[in-house]
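Sequence and structure are kept together here, with a separate record for every protein. An example record follows, reproduced without changes.
>
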Amino acid sequence: MMLLEIRHLSKSFDGVKSVIDLSLSINEGTITSIVGPNGAGKTTLFNLITGFLQQDEGSIVYNGRPVDKFSAPQRALLGFGRIWQDVRVFNKMTVLENLLVARKNHPGEKIVNCLLRPRMVARVERETRATAEKILKSIKLDHKRYSLAQDLSYGQQKLLALGRLLVNDAQLLLVDEPTAGVNPVMVDEILAIMRDLTNTGVTVLMIEHNVLKARSISDHIYTMSEGRIQSSVPLPKPHQAEIPTEAFSTL
């Protein structure tokens, strides 16, 4: 089932074209990578998909529904989740607290509920904690639940950022360079966890400069250069299968 479809998307800044007549589609429960050199327009594309920028032309359809006029918060409520290159965790909070505060629409945020509906607030708090504990286990940070986020490795902080999206049932994860600056051992763990997430129906769209890592995990790779999609390569199973190097000749 197609989850995201981008049709003829274009975006310019002061007359300079950053994304040009770009189209791509992403199926549910898959990992899609966008690779390409710096300045190719990859981050601009992410900003357009998530609603931080408005396209000049084209359309974005999510789960069969046009979302062109939806703001970034509105798209987040629909199931969009984004991890930036700088992970933006709450350094002075514990790992568990980082997940708990990510819960959207918590009734305890309203003082009237705390005063008049304390049982409901307590129930939601228990449910949120149970969900957070389950997510901690899935991202392999359950042994760090009471550690401060600032004490995690950079790779673990990226996993924590991923977990915060899962608290709110994000179905489309846009991940910007998940392996950049991460210890090689941790890189493999991050990629394996993202692959496991697709087995639960989560869909991943990621920007990645490491082509070897991208093709080891992805179901589809788009090569982007000068604002355009230069090649589209569906990957055979298993994911480690060889792909002709000419498919990535623009890198």
Remarks:
- Residues 118-138 form the longest helix (21 residues).
- Residues 240-251 have pLDDT under 50 and may be disordered.
- The first strand starts at residue 2 and ends at 13.
